[in-house]
Amino acid sequence: MNYSLIIPCYNEGKNLPILINKYKKFLINPKNELVLVNNGSVDDTEIIFKKLTKFKNIKTCRVKKNIGFGFGLKKGILASSGKIIIYSHADFEVNPNDVIKSIKLFEKNKYEKKIFIKGNRIQLLKNHWTGTDIFFSYGYTVLSLILFRKKIYDIHAMPVLFSKKLLKNLNYFPNEFSIDLALYVHAIKNYYKIIRFPVNFNKKKRKYGEGSSDNIIKLIQNSFVQFYHSLIILFKSK
Fold first, then answer.
1. 72-97 confidence digits (pLDDT tens)
2. Domain 3-236: which CATH number of 3.40.50.1220, 3.40.50.150, 3.40.50.450, 3.90.550.10
3. Residue 77 in 3-state DSSP?
């Protein structure tokens, strides 16, 4: 099976050499490909990308202006060639070993026609989440449960794995982090088998780059944006 791991990168230049080293287990299979997206970075990401041409199964592409995580993910998917898509973050809050776990789960269930695999973040306090982080994460879960009346939780957990076929009837692809919800809801609506597995999303593992939850102002702003997009997803999914 061919897997395409999509990682949008926003000002993650200093992370990239470490990132590639950590994904050795994934890259050792020549059928796998790592698609790195320069998602409108203003650091040295593009310079580092140009040095990656020696890797046969690493692709790079560029978004000139940062519009959001979802837009970068879409750009990476369009550049990918694998039948199975996996996506994750460029920082190290997501453990690269969890990508390997998601693949093993897929292989174990590969005779199922429709599978959607997603991490489930555990031990939040031990992984250095603040009370504010937990409040907003659970708040988004409660909002989604009320709006969609489906078993939806920990919406932004990664990695996420699904067949590219899932995208055929997806009629709304948000440009920001609401893409997590859009794909999750779309998979449930289309009767995919949802597999969640425990992951440690360690806030202290992040070294460089910029995120959408760096401070309380960003968290509040993103909450309003995600509420707006949640309503659009609800309308589009009917």
1. 999 999 999 999 999 999 888 899 99
2. 3.90.550.10
3. helix
